[in-house]
Amino acid sequence: MQYSNANVNPVEKQRLREAINQEVNRFLEAGGSITVLETRGPGDHDYRVAAWQEGDAVDEILE
After folding, report:
1. What is the pTM of this model?
2. Is the pLDDT of residue 63 over 60?
3. Domain ranges of the chain
């Protein structure tokens, strides 16, 4: 499924990223952990992704 970026509000997108980052940090600080599972789709290319490290910003991971 592909989405068009034509209707993306950059201010709202940044607000959502910051809210997600805060919630993830709160979860990790409370002792939670995140396991990253990678699945490959038909159009995916080979690549490696580092596991989430405490303090990583959501922006860095999503970009």
Report:
1. 0.47
2. no
3. 10-62
